[in-house]
């Protein structure tokens, strides 16, 4: 009897330990053969006014539908640690607290559609790190807070349709491909479904990215309704996103005066970038590791234009790397990168060394070599970009630039390492330095200019033939884009290639053994390829038109020349043909045997009769005489 009583108590306790289902809900357990399963709870009582608090803790799916619930309180589901699907749809909810979804670490799907929510606590999404589906359609949302963007990175299904949204944060579309820079993949897991239809969109530059995505054919962002339309402004009302043309909306573009800069150790460097776009873009500087740079100056000289300067004072080897200038406005972003290389050595003053017998004074500067990973290339001057200002410390001299008169003052001389042996060459070096002033490269001349190259000629002067020379050339006034060519003094010429057509260039010869500030320079212009093409076209047309005229003129001259030589013979022929053979016609004496019709006889004329005929008039020559005894007249 005692054993039966214990068994009864055990069964009662077991029945009490089973999960309790709320009275206004229906709980269903989906079991498996192995004894495991999932539990779903459906609460759809129209008289329910509050979220149930006694839902079984092992619930995986909770549905609260078509009730009178008007508010989701704080920590309403904190004990449902296994909840993965939460559907609170078609209720009368108007308020959602920031902590309403606290401790829902494994929640995958949240549906709040069909309510009257006007403001959604986007920061509450951080309590649901595994959330992938967020359905807020058919509510009264009027805006999306820009602070919500970080919490939507993992969302793959976002439905904001049938609300009162007029715009979206311009950065919202940047979290999804292709605007986030991630290569487009055919992987279905990277697809993002957006529901944005049935909203009164105000079509301006703020939603230009959304309009751009709607025009794309193959994109990971899939719109539920492709035929999104504008509700405002008035000139775009009813126009599809695909056909709408926005005014004053241009993506930014960034330009830098140089992409690679080499600066000496300890110098000051200014990096500048210019941007244009509409609206006027903002500029940001970042290092290669993504960290921001604060020592910048930014100014907008006019609408749609902005420029920024980043300054580096006393650069060190750690400052070398890539610096990115990023321009951003509501229409998009753009970026340009400048690579900075720090090279050279730093000099420190040391006590003078004791000179040995037969040696001159010793150098008082000890050169510190840079680390092994720093390039040992020739040191160039710190770059100062056009239009920028440099702030120098009190004890620092400003860097010298190449002046317009052709003399080069901007190259810093790298100290020679003179620590070999016991310094026997110091005296000779000092003497050679004294003679450097008389040694100079002269007679600089530019020949064979083309659109992209030129040849520089010079005379070595007093320099040795094997003396090293450095040819430094750059576009006139652009000292930050210098190029160098190594040569020998005895070569006498060097080819300058990679030039741009129709530009003015400055070229200088730097001799390492010459005195500072005495390097000769010369300016020249490259040919304009477009003008050359136009000249050839015009010349060809002129040749086609003029050559036939020249040929015709030559032909006429030759014809006249030939006719001049044949003139005498022609005159003789003309003289012979000017006279006809005259004959006299006289009356015959009638005879009995002669024919009555033959009344006239012909006889040759002599010279006297010919002259007589020529002197008579044409009228007199035609006179006839009826008398047989009259003398004969001459007829032609």
TrEMBL record:
Residues 411-439 have a biased composition (Basic and acidic residues). SUPFAM superfamilies: Fibronectin type III, Immunoglobulin, L domain-like. Residues 440-532 form the Fibronectin type-III domain. PROSITE patterns: FN3, IG_LIKE, LRR. The chain crosses the membrane at residues 534-555. Residues 359-381 have a biased composition (Polar residues). Pfam families: Ig_3, LRR_8. Residues 252-341 form the Ig-like domain. Keywords: Disulfide bond, Immunoglobulin domain, Leucine-rich repeat, Membrane, Repeat, Signal, Transmembrane, Transmembrane helix. It comes from the Eukaryota. Residues 1-19 form the signal peptide. Residues 346-439 are annotated as: Disordered. The keyword Signal applies. The keyword Transmembrane applies. This is Ig-like domain-containing protein. It comes from Xenotaenia resolanae.
């Amino acid at each position: 009897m005692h054993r039966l009583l214990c068994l009864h108590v055990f069964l009662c306790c077991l029945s009490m330990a089973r999960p309790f289902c709320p009275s206004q809900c229906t709980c269903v357990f989906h079991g498996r053969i192995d004894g495991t399963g999932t539990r779903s709870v459906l609460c759809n009582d129209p008289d329910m006014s509050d979220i149930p608090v006694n839902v079984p803790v092992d619930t995986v799916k909770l549905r609260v539908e078509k009730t009178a619930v008007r508010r989701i309180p704080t920590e309403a589901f904190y004990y449902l640690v296994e909840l993965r699907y939460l559907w609170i749809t078609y209720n009368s909810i108007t308020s959602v607290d920031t902590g309403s979804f606290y401790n829902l670490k494994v929640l995958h799907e949240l549906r709040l559609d069909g309510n009257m929510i006007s403001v959604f606590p986007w920061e509450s999404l951080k309590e649901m790190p595994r959330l992938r589906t967020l359905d807020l359609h058919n509510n009264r949302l009027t805006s999306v807070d820009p602070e919500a963007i970080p919490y939507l990175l993992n969302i793959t299904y976002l439905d904001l349709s049938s609300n009162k949204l007029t715009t979206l944060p311009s950065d919202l579309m940047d979290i999804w491909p292709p605007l986030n820079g991630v290569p487009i993949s055919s992987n279905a897991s990277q697809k993002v479904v957006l529901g944005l239809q049935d909203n009164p969109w105000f079509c301006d530059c703020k939603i230009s990215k959304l309009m751009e995505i709607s025009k794309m054919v193959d994109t990971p962002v899939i719109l539920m309704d492709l035929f999104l339309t504008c509700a405002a402004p008035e000139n775009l009302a009813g126009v599809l996103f695909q056909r709408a043309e926005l005014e004053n909306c241009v993506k930014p573009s960034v330009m830098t005066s140089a992409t690679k800069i080499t600066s000496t150790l300890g110098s000051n460097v200014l990096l500048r970038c210019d941007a244009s776009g509409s609206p006027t873009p903002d500029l940001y500087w970042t290092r290669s590791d993504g960290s921001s740079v604060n020592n910048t100056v930014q100014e907008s000289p006019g609408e749609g234009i902005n420029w920024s300067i980043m300054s580096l004072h006393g650069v060190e080897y750690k400052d070398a790397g890539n610096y990115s200038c990023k321009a951003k406005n509501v229409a998009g972003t753009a970026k340009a990168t400048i690579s900075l290389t720090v090279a050279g050595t730093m000099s420190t003053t040391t006590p003078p060394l004791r000179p040995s017998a037969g040696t001159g004074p010793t150098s008082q500067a000890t050169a510190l070599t840079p680390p092994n990973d720093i390039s040992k290339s020739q040191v160039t001057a710190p770059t100062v970009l056009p239009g920028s200002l440099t702030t120098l410390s009190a004890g620092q001299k400003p860097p010298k630039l190449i002046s317009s008169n052709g003399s080069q003052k901007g190259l810093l001389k790298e100290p020679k390492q003179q620590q070999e042996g016991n310094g026997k060459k110091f005296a000779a070096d000092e003497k050679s330095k004294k003679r450097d002033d008389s040694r100079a490269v002269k007679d600089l001349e530019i020949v064979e200019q083309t659109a992209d190259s030129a040849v520089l000629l010079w005379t070595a002067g007093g320099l040795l033939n094997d003396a090293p020379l450095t040819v430094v050339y750059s576009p006139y006034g652009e000292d930050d884009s210098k190029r160098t060519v190594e040569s020998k003094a005895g070569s006498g010429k060097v080819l300058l290639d990679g030039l741009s057509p129709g530009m003015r260039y400055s070229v200088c010869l730097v001799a390492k053994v010459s005195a500072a500030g005495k390097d000769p320079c010369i300016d020249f212009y490259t040919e304009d390829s477009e003008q050359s093409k136009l000249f050839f076209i015009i010349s060809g047309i002129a040749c086609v038109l003029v050559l036939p005229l020249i040929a015709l003129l030559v032909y006429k001259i030759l014809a006249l020349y030939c006719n001049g030589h044949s003139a005498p013979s022609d005159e003789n022929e003309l003289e012979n043909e000017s006279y006809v053979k005259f004959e006299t016609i006289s009356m015959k004496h009638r005879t009995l045997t002669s024919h009555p019709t033959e009344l006239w006889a012909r006889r040759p004329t002599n010279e006297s009769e010919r002259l007589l005929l020529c002197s008579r008039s044409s009228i007199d020559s035609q006179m006839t005489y009826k008398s047989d005894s009259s003398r004969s007249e001459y007829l032609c």
